[in-house]
Design brief:
Elements (H helix, E strand, L loop, with lengths): L1 H37 L1 H7 L20 E4 L1 H5 L6 H12 L1 H9 L1 H6 L2 H13 L4 H10 L1 H7 L3 H9 L2 E9 H10 L5 E5 L1 E4 L2 E6 L7 H9 L6 E4 L3 H7 L4 E4 L35 H27 L2 H10 L3 E5 L13 E4 L6 H9 L4 E4 L4 H6 L3 E4 L4 H14 L2 E3 L10 E2 L13 E9 L15 H6 L5 E6 L15 H16 L2 E2 L4 H8 L9 H9 L1
Parallel strand pairs: 1-2, 1-6, 2-3, 6-7, 8-15, 9-12, 9-14, 10-11, 10-12, 13-16
Antiparallel strand pairs: 4-5, 14-15
Helix pairs in contact: 4-5, 4-7, 4-8, 8-11, 12-13, 14-15
């Protein structure tokens, strides 16, 4: 019943506002634009927006007690468009169908005015979306893209102030988490959305869209913020004119010779974990390219899977590279010392395919141990996989038995990490073998990430192989000297930490003490344990 009422309201809104008012306004826009082309010099002299200095001219000294007011779009980010962030919510929080619908709406959105465009995007993105899905996207997906698009000088001005307040017309749930957690904003005023139960209706609440200049007046009253940051649009000029000092953050700041790109080492908080499938900022053109690639990508993914599972190593390697796979291998298989035990390969963990690519590169069968692997991934794996139990003694016995049968691959981090960081290494592997070979692995993708914390793990290999040119770089290091192993008098923790530092130096990564539990508690709100049906039934029976 509630859904029917929402649908009726939206239909009424489309008929009387979207079609009638928008078409009229679009016609007037086109007419005025044509007149502008004919009378450009006259129009520019009659209607010229107030001029504010560029943000690069803002001094940073003695700002500790200043109050800053800004909008994240146009004020802190290098691009003003908020479409990519709605697309991220639609794709990662909703579905690929919702994302496709948002993409199809682009031609209509182009002719709408600011308010109707925003309302239409809100409805398409949020109608029927669960509150928990939006929370997950806000926490685990959006911060990466916001950080990468931060304007360097605007951030420096922000960091120099004592109090920070954001006023934005986009939904508050999309920006508040990032602004408060990463940029330490005191308060965020954004558009509130209507909800029913645990779902968004796609409609704006009774308070309507936030008008930034009015919201600033209502919040501060007669008091003026010290600094205002905004874009070069007339909407933002009205907003920042209410501040004592106003500065414009324009997109062509790079022409001044000073880069506005935010380097990773200046992030306000290290970006170690993030989730979601999209590896690019989904602008309209980039999203269109993705949907055009999807049929080809799905075919390529299954072709590469078939090749890797059923064909011999050399032929699989040849066809994989022929299909666009970028595989680079340094080093070679280590020499054998004559012991009955196999070699233990200690790898960094980038995707579930790490042991598979190592096995293919070496041209020999390997056994991989894992803590939580979906049943589908176990079935399609071209190498032997053994699931561990998280019981240290039992897992130690299992790995000892596997080493007596042949070579073994272990990823001591226990989970994947996308960014240039290594998680804490579990020390169990160091107690089991004296012949250990560190393997530095790194991957690069351009369209889809092949890992997830909250999505379907069985699709991880498929998403990775759907990339136009997925890249795997493998560097096999020298075998660990005996004096650096437990047999040489070192503790298991010392051995694990040494190998972690060695691999980090090889890859140019940074070592951390973060664990698998830290990752999943942050991104998915759980410990990331995948139970099979038998384990679930036993736990329910208890």
């Amino acid at each position: 019943m509630v859904f029917q009422m929402v649908l009726l309201k939206f239909a009424d809104w489309i008929l009387y506002q979207l079609l009638a008012n928008s078409c009229y306004r679009a016609a007037r826009k086109m007419r005025s634009y044509g007149f502008f082309l004919k009378n450009q010099s006259l129009k520019s002299s009659q209607q010229q927006a107030p001029s504010f200095p560029n943000v690069f001219k803002c001094g940073l000294e003695n700002r500790g007690s200043d109050i800053l007011a800004c909008d994240i779009h146009g004020g802190l980010l290098r691009t003003e468009s908020f479409f990519p962030y709605f697309m991220l919510v639609a794709f990662e929080g909703g579905s690929i169908l919702r994302a496709f619908l948002l993409l199809l709406s682009c031609p209509i959105l182009w002719v709408l005015d600011y308010e109707l465009k925003l309302r239409a995007m809100i409805f398409i993105t949020f109608c029927g979306l669960r509150l928990t899905d939006m929370e997950n996207v806000s926490r685990a997906v959006l911060p990466k893209f916001y950080l990468e698009n931060l304007h360097l000088k605007a951030f420096e001005v922000l960091a120099s102030t004592g109090s920070r307040f954001a006023f934005t017309s986009v939904p508050r749930v999309m920006v508040e988490g990032f602004l408060k957690e990463y940029l330490l904003f005191d308060n965020v005023k954004g558009t509130e959305l209507h909800t029913v139960g645990h779902y968004f209706t796609g409609l704006v609440s009774d308070s309507g869209l936030v008008l930034k200049h009015r919201a600033l007046k209502d919040y501060f009253g007669d008091k003026k913020p010290d600094i205002g940051l905004g874009s070069s649009s007339l909407h933002d000029h009205l907003f920042i004119s209410l501040c004592k000092e106003a500065y414009v953050v324009s997109r062509d700041d790079g022409m001044s010779g000073t880069s506005s790109v935010m380097p990773r080492d200046k992030y306000p908080k290290p970006l170690v974990f993030h989730d979601g499938r999209l590896a690019f900022l989904p602008t309209p053109l980039a999203t269109l390219s993705m949907f055009m690639w999807l049929p080809i990508g799905v075919f390529l993914a299954f072709f590469r899977l078939f090749v890797g599972i059923h064909l011999p190593y050399k032929l699989a390697l040849f066809l994989g590279i022929w299909s666009g796979l970028d595989l680079r291998v340094k080093g070679c298989s280590p020499s054998r010392s004559g012991h009955r035990k196999g070699v233990l390969y200690v790898c960094t963990h980038r995707t579930l395919l790490d042991p598979v690519f190592l096995s293919t590169s070496l041209g020999q069968p390997l056994t991989a141990v894992t803590y939580s692997l979906s049943r589908m991934s176990e079935i399609i794996a071209p190498i032997k996989t053994v699931r561990l139990t998280r019981d240290r003694k039992q897992d130690g016995r299992t790995m000892q038995r596997l080493l007596s049968e042949g070579d073994l691959v272990v990823c001591p981090e226990g989970t994947t990490c996308r960014e240039p960081y290594l998680l804490r290494f579990s020390s169990l592997f160091a107690e089991l073998a004296n012949e250990m070979v560190p393997v530095a692995m790194n991957t690069r993708v351009s369209m889809f990430y092949g890992t997830t914390a909250s999505g379907l793990k069985c699709l991880d290999p498929i998403f990775f192989l759907m990339n136009p040119r997925p890249s795997y770089h493998i560097q096999i290091l020298e075998k660990l000297p005996r004096e650096l192993t437990c047999a040489g008098g070192r503790s298991s923790c010392e051995v694990a930490n040494y190998i972690q530092r060695k691999l980090a130096d090889t890859l140019g990564f940074e070592c951390t003490t973060l664990t698998r539990k830290d990752k999943y508690m942050m991104l998915a709100g759980n410990e990331g344990i995948v139970q099979d049906k038998r384990e679930k039934s036993q736990s329910i029976g208890k």
